[in-house]
Write a structure and sequence with these properties.
By secondary structure, the chain is mostly beta strands. It contains 3 helices and 17 strands. The strands form 3 sheets. The chain has a 12-stranded antiparallel beta barrel with strand order 1-4-5-8-9-10-11-13-14-15-16-17. Strands 2-3 form a two-stranded antiparallel sheet.
Length: about 350
Amino acid sequence: MSLAALASTGSASAADLPVKAKPIADLPFFLVIDDRVTYSWMPKGTDPGEFSTRPDGSINGKTAKSVYSFTHFDAWAYGTNFFTISMFKSDHNDPANPCTAPGVTITGGPANCAGATEIYGLIRSTFGWNEIFNTHAFTMGPLHNISFEVGADANTENNFLTPAKRDFVAGLQFAFDLPYKGYFNVAPLAYKEINHNAFNQCGLFGPGVPGVTCSVDGNTDFKTTWAVETNYYMDLGFLPENMQFFSISGRAAWYGPKGDSNGLPAISGVGRFSNASKTEFNSEPIRLTFDASKAFMGPKYSHFVDVWVAYRYWQNKFGLDHNATPGVCTIAATGASTNSCTESTVYTGITLKF
């Protein structure tokens, strides 16, 4: 009533009254943080050059693998970051050192070596043009944003070849919206790879000629090439409400030829004996995910527990020509395929968010 009286007489206005303003909360640095762990089982994986011969003479180039993964995704004011690291544990068809093939050591002696273990990591970061330039000019129709993208991959494995891959990518990402809060991203990139291959090491098969028939340190510096990486995600929102626990996602990536697979011109060869790298196609065209925690615990726990099944297809694995590359993708004496340079498998897993 006192405030009403003051206002009616004109002796004070609302602007004159002492008001305790509520402070504006600061936005957190990371707008989204999503961390997950996954276990998956891959019954028909491959590792190029690792194969065995069955009693009937047929070639077994398949390797069952258990995969343990950690993934991290975050969004901040100017872009996103994605990081994953995985451990692949193979069966005995992809043996660890000192075996060079199932049941055979580097000296030719028999041994039942344990399955190899590979550690693989990948990181991708984007910097959105809308955010950098404080505009909406790069949002039109289904196009959501254009971003700069940079990233790197690295791996190491304890098999005879002891690969130590390091690659770097840089380019653009075009992000598009899909129905039901989905997205589709496509990124044209430049790709540079450096790797290690014990097979190339000078001294392994005699002194050799460094840079011609062998590598001084076993490393291969590949040519810079092109790459295109894509990925998508969409909830199946068209399903009845009591069935909206499913989503689909996938990815596909192409990596251009990067020179001789061994980096050694003297042993490059031609035709079916060629070591020339080919365009690599690495994909998981579809993954069907069931949001188990939402189904059994309610929307509050959406995607805390996901169970999924996916199909994986990888042609010319690591850039190796599946129709050539003697001693790895094909039997050198006959040209028959080792069935180890193409990966085609259905696999399944469970993912936990924390």
